[in-house]
Design goal:
The complex is a heterotrimer of chains A (232), B (302) and C (282).
Chain A lengths: L1 H16 L4 H14 L2 E11 L3 E3 L2 E8 L3 E5 L4 E4 L3 H10 L4 E11 L2 E10 L6 E9 L5 E8 L3 E8 L11 E9 L5 H4 L9 H5 L1 E15 L14
Antiparallel strand pairs in A: 1-3, 1-12, 3-4, 6-7, 7-8, 8-9, 9-10, 10-11, 11-12
Chain B lengths: L2 E12 L2 E12 L3 E5 L6 H8 L7 E6 L2 E2 L4 H5 L2 E4 L11 H11 L6 H10 L15 H13 L5 E5 L7 H18 L2 E6 L2 H7 L2 E6 L2 E7 H4 L5 E7 L2 H8 L8 E5 L2 E6 L4 H10 L4 E7 L1 H11 L1
Parallel strand pairs in B: 3-8, 3-9, 6-7, 7-8
Antiparallel strand pairs in B: 1-2, 1-4, 4-5, 9-10, 11-13, 11-14, 12-13
Chain C lengths: L1 H16 L1 H33 L6 E4 L5 H24 L4 H6 L1 H6 L5 H35 L4 E5 L2 E5 L5 H28 L4 H19 L3 H6 L4 H5 L12 H28 L5
Antiparallel strand pairs in C: 2-3
Helix pairs in contact in C: 1-6, 2-3, 2-6, 3-6, 3-7, 3-8, 6-7, 6-11, 7-8, 7-11
Chain lengths: 232, 302, 282
């Protein structure tokens, strides 16, 4: 009897802590977003984009609320046009522009997550549908799937360890569907290579960009010049 | 006297055309040789074989007693030549052209030496002009400078008078003679002008259709003792009758209708004319040529 | 050796003093400056033809239009023109002298025909090297001065390869060496054809025709052509581009270099063999 009581108590306490209302979840999440007015961090980037070969590289991330974002490096790198690191907080913070519903629950990386669908209220919005896998216990976005009118669908998976109370991930894996980048033989003047099979180049493939963050510095109120200054 | 050039049974064919046909001759060191032949006789091909510009198909070419094939480097140091016409780099000055040649011969000519050389060939003051501004005669003179720059033992000149004015021809004649007499150079001088060759050469080689026609000392070839005398008369029967039992009948080489051809010395001719005149034989024409002229005219006529 | 040095020096003097020599330097300088000006003015638009196909999905961050990319584009453009410039000089090396009669001047010196043809070939190579030096100065150094240094976005038929700026100088060094080897083949082919012909136009036109035909064969992926492509030197002439691939196809590059080297050896050997036996009748 005692055991049954303990089990029942733990079940009740779990549901008391977990949030199952999307607005409450987003509100809790936004509280965390609002705790960070700016941050800088070191970032290591790994790229696996169809038709693009590039080595990993590192740089420094700069972010200021609501959507000022920059990675400063010495070289060339690719980022999704719909940059989740730049837009996610801005998208969720503007609570009047969308309606939200929970479409289900799913475990992501060992976290019990509510799948919160964000549907824009205005047709003029670029967003078609945003799906956010939000940890119901400790509101953090563990996974996103954002579909926009012009830029297709982009998925991210966030991994948190040390800085979870700030919603700042230690690692983001961005997955994006794209056609393989191709170059005509005439343009590339590549005589010693066979041209690619056209059917292969036209097929959609998944590209991955992995960003690993470290050495976060939060709310340091760094200068705005960091967003405009030339790269080193 | 040692041999400067020795050709033994040299043959050269260009596809089906035989330019030089089993040609043999010798050029002795220290003499001036005239190398005669009409256009297309094989003169240039022969000279080019001597200068290793053309490889013979068969036979041997020796210079200074050495095989040209095996000792080209040593031999070429001792030869200066103008083949066909002197061609130079038109975008370079005369002196630059000559210094290119000098450098391959490992010669370090001083400014004074260059001046002397250009004075010798009559180009003093024009040595810094670009060759494109030179006349043909000036190029011939420059060719001579190039020929002489390394003080060669053997000088081969292929039609060097071409393009020269009368004074130039005279200057060249004096230069060739002085090079031979004062410096002991052997000279092989090709031409199709017999008189020019007669004027300066000690020896002659005449070729035609790639073969040697005649060769020997100019003195012998131009001898007045063995002339070809051609006599043309109005009445050949009477002439023949009158000549019977005379000493001239033995000298008769051939007879064709009105034409009688004799071989005799120049001194014999007046006596024969007197005899025929006394015997009322009307002479239409009489002329005589020495052996070389005879060959050369035959060749050129053909 | 002294004699060979003198012959080589003479050949260099002739090359330097000939007006046609400077046409090559002028063309390279003009093309480089013209394209640099075009890229300075409209570079971003020109680049958008490449980046346009993925700009709906990705943004490329960083300094793309930099000196390295301009050099890559210039080298890619000029690798088609430079053989013609090399042919213009090397195709005339011996045939020009044969046509003008100066070959007699040259061959009646004590220097052997072998030495003369090697000296001429070397002078052609030195000219080729100098062309590449001028190209290096204009395409790389001046482009970097104008457009700055940055990662190279190399375009090839398999897509894009980003080469980091701190990993690129050795690649340029090797690329110019391979370009030299490639143009060395053209110079050697020019020398060989020049030995065989008695006028300077035919060797130049022949080299141009060979390069154009081989390049066209290289552009079409037809089974028949695929069989002969590995034997065409033009296929290997662009192997400098492989230096800007990741991972580096070292084996392919090395085999291309060996093939190019053997082409040079073969063309030079044929030149010497033929020239030693050639009758000078002009």
């Amino acid at each position: 009897m005692k055991n049954i009581f303990l089990i029942l108590l733990s079940f009740i306490s779990f549901h008391a802590c977990a949030i199952d209302d999307p607005k409450t979840l987003i509100r809790e999440l936004n509280k965390k977003f609002n705790m960070v007015s700016d941050y800088t961090a070191h970032v290591d980037m790994k790229f696996d984009i169809p038709g693009v070969k590039m080595n990993r590289m590192s740089g420094k991330v700069f972010f200021k609320q609501p959507d000022r974002f920059r990675i400063r490096t010495k070289g060339i790198f690719f980022l999704p046009k719909q940059n989740p690191m730049q837009n996610m907080s801005a998208m969720l913070l503007d609570t009047n522009s969308y309606t939200s519903i929970i479409s289900g629950y799913e475990t992501v990386g060992g976290h019990n997550c509510a799948i919160v669908n964000i549907i824009p209220l205005k047709n003029i919005s670029e967003l078609i549908l945003g799906k956010f896998w939000i940890d119901v216990k400790n509101p953090l976005v563990m996974k996103t799937q954002i579909t926009t009118k012009n830029n297709g669908t982009i998925e991210t998976e966030n991994i948190f360890t040390s800085t979870s109370h700030y919603t700042l991930p230690d690692e983001i894996v961005i997955k994006i569907e794209t056609k393989k980048i191709k170059m005509s033989k005439l343009m590339s003047a590549d005589l010693n290579k066979k041209a690619q099979d056209k059917s292969k180049t036209d097929a959609l493939e998944t590209g991955t960009i992995r960003l690993i963050f470290s050495n976060y510095k939060i709310n340091t109120k760094f200068s705005d010049n960091e967003f405009t200054a030339a790269d080193n | 006297m040692s041999s400067a050039i020795l050709l033994e049974n040299v043959t050269k064919k260009f596809k089906d055309f035989t330019a030089v046909d089993d040609l043999s001759f010798e050029v002795k060191a220290g003499d001036i040789y005239g190398f005669l032949g009409p256009n297309g006789s094989g003169k240039s091909t022969t000279l080019r074989m001597i200068m290793s510009l053309i490889k013979p198909d068969s036979g041997a070419v020796q210079l200074f007693g050495q095989s040209l094939r095996d000792n080209r480097h040593t031999i070429m140091k001792k030869i200066g030549c103008i083949i066909e016409k002197p061609d130079f780099y038109s975008y370079l000055s005369a002196k630059e052209n000559i210094s290119l040649f000098a450098s391959v011969h490992q010669l370090n000519y001083t400014k004074k030496q260059y001046e002397e050389l250009f004075e010798l060939v009559g180009l003093k003051g024009r040595e810094h002009d670009k060759v494109k501004n030179y006349s043909h005669g000036m190029k011939q003179r420059l060719g001579l400078a190039q020929t002489l720059i390394h003080d060669p033992e053997l000088i081969i000149l292929d039609e060097p008078n071409t393009g020269l004015d009368p004074q130039g021809i005279l200057d060249l004649r004096h230069l060739i003679l002085s090079l031979n007499k004062e410096r002991g150079k052997t000279i092989l001088f090709s031409s199709h002008i017999l008189s020019e060759v007669q004027a300066i050469c000690t020896n002659m080689i005449v070729i035609n259709k790639g073969k040697t026609v005649v060769q020997g000392r100019v003195d012998d070839l131009l001898s007045q003792e063995n002339l070809t005398v051609k006599l043309e008369v109005v009445d050949p029967m009477a002439c023949n009758e009158k000549l019977q039992d005379t000493k001239w009948m033995a000298l008769l080489e051939s007879r064709e209708e009105k034409l009688f051809v004799f071989k005799m010395g120049k001194t014999e001719i007046p006596g024969m004319i007197d005899y025929l005149t006394v015997n009322k034989i009307a002479i239409e024409r009489i002329d005589y040529r020495n052996q070389l002229e005879d060959y050369f005219l035959k060749i050129t006529h053909n | 050796m002294k004699e060979f040095t003198a012959v080589l020096r003479n050949e260099m003097l002739k090359t330097i003093r000939r007006p046609r020599t400077f046409i090559g330097f002028g063309v390279i300088t003009f093309i480089c400056l013209m394209l640099q000006g075009a890229f300075y003015q409209d570079g971003k638009e020109i680049l958008s033809t490449v980046t346009g196909q993925f700009e709906n999905v990705f943004t490329i961050q960083g300094h793309i239009l930099n000196g390295n990319l301009i050099c890559y584009i210039l080298l890619q453009t000029l690798i088609v023109q430079m053989p013609l410039l090399v042919a213009f000089v090397t195709g005339d090396l011996i045939s020009g002298e044969t046509a003008s009669g100066t070959i007699r001047f040259l061959l009646t010196t004590p220097a052997s025909r072998g030495k003369i043809v090697v000296a001429k070939w070397l002078s052609g190579l030195i000219y080729t090297f100098l062309l590449l030096v001028v190209l290096g100065i204009f395409a790389l150094i001046i482009s970097r001065a104008i457009f700055g240094v940055g990662d190279l976005m190399a375009m090839n038929s398999e897509g894009l390869t980003i080469i980091r700026a701190d990993d690129i100088n050795w690649r340029w060094g090797c690329a110019f060496l391979i370009a030299f080897l490639s143009l060395g083949v053209v110079a050697s082919l020019g020398t060989m054809l020049s030995c065989m012909m008695d006028n300077s136009i035919t060797p130049i036109v022949t080299i141009m025709a060979v390069i154009i035909i081989f390049t066209i064969i290289g552009l079409f992926d037809m089974p028949t052509f695929e069989m002969i492509k590995p034997f065409l030197f033009t296929t290997h002439m662009i192997s400098w581009r492989s230096l800007f691939e990741e991972p580096l196809p070292a084996k392919t590059i090395l085999s291309s270099c060996v093939i190019l080297f053997f082409h040079i050896v073969a063309f030079l050997s044929i030149s010497i063999y033929y020239f030693k036996r050639k009758d000078i009748t002009t």
